């Protein structure tokens, strides 16, 4: 509100999802810890020393780097029931043990040893150490029999981890190299790399729109390319002139023409396989593709869940069919959500940083296929989810869309990438009625069209299982927040609804946030201003205020195209201040 008109509608190309039965709303995860905040103290004007004293250095800021998973952690809960006389708990055909390290872990019986092994979240099969009972108790230990310390209180590291389904992606092995024996130059503030045809450099951060320079034998530099919006480093005049900065390594990028996918390519002499990559946390952030050839059972269950025949053909060969593409999008987003949900350092990180940490986790640890299999199978069979797994929330697995300096968003880029927008759904009869009512309104009736547009999003989100929070407006509903809602794991979302117009050539025009001096809509300043009105005293306002304090507010745009398609995407407004 306080803005131009808005919009809505759902895509009819997707079959409706089955509604699971049973207790699917229970959340057994440990509560999220609040983000570390910096106390706010009034400052004296002109006191630069005091300002410097209260601004933390980078070393003092919280470290949200992802940590290696060591077990499926399950909080102590009556939901697991009482252990057997041997300390074993069985729930939904899954087995759990209490360890002497104060953990409750998921295990699988190991016939070879006659005892149990841990099943780790990033492994397909049980891959942890053999567990042994602690004499005289209902607990188990990772220590060998007869070596139990009795008072162990610190979790012990898992030993001999094997069974990772994804390959180990060692990106330094994919670093592009110059001729044999060549030494890459070093320039302060620049990231330098060598190819068989020469030496190059760009700004250390490698941000989009940065120029790429060629370094000649005398050390002089000349612009020869640039870094594109998708982070691809383009060098003019090179036959193999596309590169990408990945986890600190500059790698050569190729194209798989059969699958129309980008791949990370190693030197032919290295003998390493190409790595298929796709969009991760935002445009320009790339992650490996799921291991499609090894998860056919998960794919079949996911297709059943979405109303398709179980066998849709191989996803790893050629271009995916429409049904396979939509199924894969679901699996990718669910896998990303599971990583964040089950990794405390990511779950408690600021909302805008969560996706980046998920990307890093994937490169280091792979995807959590075991948890993904358990969740998808339960959903496909309309069963309650296993203890400790969240219900699917597509928004938690999607990438962010960054604004322009002017507060706008490129809708064409959003439409073209299924990692950047909410999955399309089949409309319900009620949603069709709302759509037809919206279409019948005069295009100049901004208030009426805006209200109907918001109603379409409210109905759509409710049908997807989101909880709509009342309030959030002021001035008799004419200003404030369009919609505040919560996901199945209590993530808080703030939605701003817009209409999209068609530009020349059939493309969409940008969606722009209105400037409500001195801030754009959806900037923190605008949100805080709105919270200072009567909107802040409503249920929606209270929820947004708490999420802002915790750095856990997810901002969403709902952009309705002229034909009535509803586009929902997560946004990052920080570029307007860069």
Biggest pleated-sheet summary: 10 strands, antiparallel
- What's the architecture of the largest domain in CATH terms? 3-Layer(aba) Sandwich
State the end-to-end distance.
25 Å
Structural class label: alpha+beta
CATH topology of the largest domain: Trna Endonuclease, Chain: A, domain 1
Number of helices: 12
Q: Give the amount of beta strand, in percent.
A: 15-25%
CATH class of the largest domain: Alpha Beta
Principal-axes shape call: globular
> Which strand order do you get reading across the main beta sheet?
7-8-9-10-11-12-13-14-15-16
Strand segment tally: 28
Q: Radius of gyration over alpha carbons? A: 26 Å
Number of domains: 4
**Overall pLDDT score:** 84
Low confidence ranges: 4-13, 16-53, 68-73, 148-162
- Helix coverage percent: 10-25%
Give a written overview of the molecule.
- It is a single chain.
- The protein has 578 residues and is an alpha+beta fold.
- A hairpin with a 5-residue loop joins strand 27 and strand 28.
Task: Note the topology.
Elements: H1 48-54, E1 88-91, E2 94-98, E3 104-110, E4 115-118, E5 130-133, E6 140-141, E7 190-195, E8 198-203, E9 211-215, E10 221-227, E11 232-235, E12 242-246, E13 249-256, E14 261-265, E15 275-279, E16 286-288, H2 296-305, H3 322-342, H4 344-347, H5 351-365, H6 369-380, H7 394-397, E17 400-402, E18 408-409, H8 411-416, H9 429-440, H10 446-463, E19 467-469, E20 473-474, E21 479-480, E22 483-486, E23 492-499, E24 511-512, E25 515-516, E26 519-520, H11 524-531, H12 539-549, E27 553-560, E28 566-572
Parallel strand pairs: 17-28, 23-27
Antiparallel strand pairs: 1-2, 2-3, 3-4, 4-5, 5-6, 7-8, 8-9, 9-10, 10-11, 11-12, 12-13, 13-14, 14-15, 15-16, 18-24, 19-22, 20-21, 22-23, 25-26, 27-28
Region (Disordered): 1-40
Biased composition (Polar residues): 1-16
């Amino acid at each position: 509100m306080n803005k131009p008109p808005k919009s809505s509608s759902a895509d009819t190309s997707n079959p409706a999802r089955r509604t699971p039965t049973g207790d699917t709303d229970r959340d057994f995860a440990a509560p999220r810890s609040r983000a570390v905040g910096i106390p706010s103290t009034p400052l004296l004007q002109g006191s630069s020393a005091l300002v410097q004293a209260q601004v933390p250095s980078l070393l003092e800021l919280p470290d949200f780097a992802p940590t290696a998973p060591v077990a499926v952690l399950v909080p102590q809960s009556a939901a697991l029931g009482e252990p057997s006389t041997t300390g074993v708990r069985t729930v939904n055909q899954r087995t759990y043990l209490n360890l002497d390290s104060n953990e409750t872990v998921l295990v699988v019986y190991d016939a070879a040893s006659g005892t149990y092994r841990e099943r780790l979240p990033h492994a397909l099969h049980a891959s942890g150490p053999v567990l042994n009972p602690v004499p005289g108790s209902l607990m188990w230990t990772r220590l060998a029999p007869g070596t139990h310390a009795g008072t162990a209180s610190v979790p012990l590291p898992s030993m001999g981890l094997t069974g990772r389904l994804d390959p180990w992606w060692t990106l330094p092995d994919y670093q592009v190299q110059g001729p044999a024996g060549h030494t890459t130059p070093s320039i302060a503030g620049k990231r330098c790399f060598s190819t068989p045809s020469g030496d190059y450099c760009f700004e250390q951060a490698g941000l989009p729109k940065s120029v790429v320079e060629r370094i000649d034998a005398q050390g002089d530099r000349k612009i020869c390319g640039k870094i594109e919006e998708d982070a691809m480093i383009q060098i003019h005049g090179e036959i193999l002139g596309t590169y990408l900065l990945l986890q600190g390594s500059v790698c050569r990028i190729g194209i798989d023409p059969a699958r129309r996918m980008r791949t990370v390519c190693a030197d032919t002499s290295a003998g390493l396989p190409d790595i298929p990559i796709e969009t991760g946390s935002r445009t320009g952030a790339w992650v490996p593709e799921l291991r499609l050839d090894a998860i056919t059972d998960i794919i079949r269950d996911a297709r059943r869940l979405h109303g398709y025949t179980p066998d849709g053909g191989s996803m790893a060969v050629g271009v995916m069919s429409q049904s396979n593409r939509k199924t894969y999008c679901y699996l990718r987003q669910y896998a990303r959500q599971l990583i964040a949900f089950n990794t405390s350092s990511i779950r408690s990180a600021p909302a805008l940083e969560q996706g980046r940490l998920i990307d890093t986790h994937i490169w280091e640890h792979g995807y959590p296929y075991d948890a993904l299999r358990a969740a998808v199978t339960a959903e496909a069979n309309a069963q309650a989810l296993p203890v400790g797994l969240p219900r699917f929330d597509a928004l938690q697995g999607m990438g962010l869309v960054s604004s322009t300096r002017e507060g706008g968003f490129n809708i064409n880029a959003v439409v073209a990438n299924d990692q950047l927008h909410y999955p399309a759904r089949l409309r319900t009869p009620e949603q069709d009625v709302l759509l037809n009512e919206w279409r019948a309104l005069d295009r100049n009736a901004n208030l009426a069209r805006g209200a109907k547009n918001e109603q379409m999003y409210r109905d759509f989100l409710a049908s997807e299982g989101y909880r709509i929070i009342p309030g959030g407006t002021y001035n008799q509903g004419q200003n404030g927040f369009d919609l505040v809602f919560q996901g199945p794991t209590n993530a808080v979302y703030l939605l701003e609804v817009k209409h999209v117009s068609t530009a020349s050539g059939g493309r969409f025009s940008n969606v722009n946030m209105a400037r409500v001096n001195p801030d754009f809509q959806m900037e923190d300043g605008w949100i805080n201003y709105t919270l200072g009105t009567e909107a802040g005293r409503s249920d929606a306002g209270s929820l947004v205020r708490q999420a802002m304090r915790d750095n856990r507010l997810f901002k969403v745009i709902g952009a309705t195209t002229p034909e009535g398609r509803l586009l929902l995407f997560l946004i990052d407004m920080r570029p307007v201040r860069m």
